Structures are given as structure tokens and as C-alpha cells.
Amino acid sequence: MKQVPTLSAVFAILISGSLLGGAQSATAPVQAQQPKPGSSGAYTLHVDAEEVVLNCTVLDKRGELINDLDKSNFKVFEDKTLQRVISLQHQDTPVSIGLLIDNSGSMSAKRVAVASAALDLVKASNPQDETFVINFSDQAYLDQDFTSDLAKLQDGLSHVSQSGGTALYDTVVASADKMERSATRPRKVLIVITDGDDNASKLTLDNAIHRVQDMQGPIIYSIGLLFGGDKSRHAKRDLQTLASETGGIAFFPGSLKDIDSVAAEVARDIRNQYAIAYHSPQGSVSGYHAVKVEADAPGHGKLTVYTRSGYLSKHSSSSNHRSSPAF
Questions:
Q1: 173 exposed, middle or buried (CB, 10 Å; 0-12, 13-18, 19+)?
Q2: Average pLDDT, whole number, for the chain?
Q3: pLDDT tier at 172, thresholds 50, 70, 90
Q4: Which structural domains are found in the chain, ordered by start?
Q5: SS3 of 39, please?
Q6: pLDDT of 42 above 50
Q7: 247: phi > 0 → left, psi -120 to 50 → alpha, else beta; which?
Q8: 3-class DSSP state for residue 195?
Q9: What DSSP assignment string belongs to 135-187?
Q10: Rounded Cα distance, 113 and 16, in Å
Q11: How many CB atoms sit inside 10 A of residue 255's CB?
């Protein structure tokens, strides 16, 4: 397995910021973002114009994708004020995807099924997508950089060590940073597959969310292979938070045999998102702007819209921002 030479430095840098309460160290080239007052750690997006674009997935009460909506079926609220939707797109545009696969010892009996399902997910995706593979335990390894070559991705997924703990939060932040620096497709997604709690990161869940806040970050889909026990409830909550705060969805297969169908559903969701645009009257005002999207259409019953929960205007960004090293 190829270890990324700079990864330890990446995590050391991230660690120094998180343990010091978000303060910048003299040698830590990371972006720091203080949460807004009263924030619950919601994921935010910097925008450089007054036009805000939200990628949305719409499901009915059975969890089925709804793909026949138009602009009139959506309501967008910013800071609780109804906005005028100026455009709606529903196209299968190419995506930059990061596959983050838990490689800890507890995954030993699951890795073959996980690798197969992950590869099937890529096969079911847009042929123009680009994908990288990171296998992680207490450290993370970039085993395949961005590619559309299925053979290379299969090779990256086959790099198995199955040892150590689970540094999920650290891996998510470093992967989001890589996505920000080198992704070339219009949309960005991280897909996390794990079977338990983070027990090896230096960052906490809140630290990780706040680090990703300051990036034009990816949507995160979580697949939790949690098959019972008190420990699973904590892990489930964390995976749901990572997904919901970024506009993604968390999935929890009932057993290992269900992971293929879940992977296929993730691929379908990614290919069937709506892109909703509106002009923000507050986009030039410094601060966090909460966003909520609702959908309603005759014959569909209650609809649920998954999207990011807000954005941070560029005027709120810290003047002391620096970039962290990439994979």
C-alpha cells in the first residue's frame, strides 16, 4: 500500500488547530472557521456572488427518488424568508467522488463485500465522473488518485491492511481539502463507508464539520455497517450528522448482504439531484445564512428535500486563512 508522504503532516497540522480551540499555530497552514453564534455546527458554503446554488435530492415518504418536479414545486427560504427561484436544473452532470473506505481491523470480514459494492457504485455512476480512493484506519492512504479507469479503482480498493483504529474525522477533513484543491467536475461528493465509532482522530466531529465549513465542500454520503449494540447508536448519530449537515444522506444496511442495494441507491441519488438557484438579498452581508428547501407536488404525498443547511458569505471569512497541504 502506498502511504501518502505528507499525510502525517496534514493531520499534525489539523490536530494543532483543533486542540488549541481553533487557534492558528505559526506553522499550521489550515483554514480556521469559528461557528456562528448559536450554531449547531451546520455545514456552510462560501459564495462569491449573490447567486446561491443548492444541490438537492428529493425523496417521497417511501424513500423513492422524485424526478418529475419543476421550479413551481419548490420553495426556498433564506433566513426564514421566502426567495424567488430563478432556475432549476435536473441533469446528470459529472461528479468528483471520493471513496473513503474504513480499513480498520473490525472491517476484516466486510472488506470484500464493501470493495465490490463500491466498484459497482462507480460503474453505475456517470462515465465522466472522476473518483479517488482513500483507505483509512488510524492513518489514511490515498491508494488511487482521481481517475475514471475502473481497473485502477479496483486496484485501489483492493489495498487492504485491516489494522489499527478509525480516524474518520481526520480523514474526512483531509479528503475535503483534497477535493477543494484538485477536483475538476461541477459537483463534489464524499462517500464514507465504515462500521463503527471514530476512535483515532485528533479532531472531534464538531472540529471536522467546522473545518469543512470553510471550504466549498463536498456533499457527504455515509454508509454505516452498524449491526447492533450501544456503540452503534453513537456511530449512527455521527454519520447522520456528517451527511445531513452537508446535504447528503446516511444509509444503514440491515446486513452486509444489503450493501449492494445501498450502494446502487447512492449512485442513483447522485445522478438525480436538482440544482436550484436563487439571488440572495443577503448574499453581500457578512454572516451565516440559513437555508431551507421545501417541495410539494400533487400525487406525491409528503416530500423530503436533502440539501445543505446554509452558507457563509465570503465577507465573513477570516482574513487569516491559509491552506492545508493536500494528499
A1: buried
A2: 81
A3: very high
A4: 46-90+274-316 (2.60.40), 95-271 (3.40.50.410)
A5: coil
A6: no
A7: left
A8: coil
A9: EESSSEEEEEEEE--HHHHHHHHT-----S---HHHHHHHHHHHHHHH--SSE
A10: 36
A11: 8
Contacts 24+ apart (CB under 8 A), 120-123: 120/260, 120/263, 120/264, 121/191, 121/263, 121/264, 121/266, 121/267, 122/97, 122/150, 122/153, 122/267, 123/150
Which pLDDT does position 45 carry in this prediction? 46
Cβ atoms 248, 239 nearer than 8 A: no
The mean-pLDDT minimum among 99-103, 112-116, 205-209, 219-223 falls in 205-209
DSSP per residue over 257-317, as a string? GGHHHHHHHHHHHHHT-EEEEEE-TTTTSSSEEEEEEEE--TTS-SEEEE---EEEEGGGS
Percent with pLDDT over 90 in the chain: 60
**Pick from 205, 266, 191, 190: nearest CA to 235:** 205
pTM value is 0.79
15: helix, strand or coil: helix
Given a cut of 80, whether residue 105 has pLDDT beyond it is: yes
Q: Provide the pLDDT confidence category of residue 252 given band limits of 50, 70 and 90.
A: very high
Band of the pLDDT at 229, cuts 50, 70, 90? Answer: low
Q: 145 and 184 in contact (C-beta within 8 Å)?
A: no
Residue 84 to residues 72, 87, 312, Cα–Cα distance (Å) = 10, 9, 20
User: Measuring CA to CA, how many Å separate 249 from each of 12, 221, 270, 286?
Assistant: 30, 5, 10, 29
Nearest to 131 by CA among 123, 139, 208: 123
DSSP assignment of 203-244, as one string? S-HHHHHHHHHTS-PPEEEEEE---SSHHHHHHHHHHHHHHH
Whether the pLDDT of residue 29 is over 80: the answer is no
Q: CA-CA-CA-CA torsion for 89, 172, 250, 260, nearest 10 degrees?
A: 90
Nearest Cα to 268, choosing from 102, 88, 78, 126?
Answer: 126
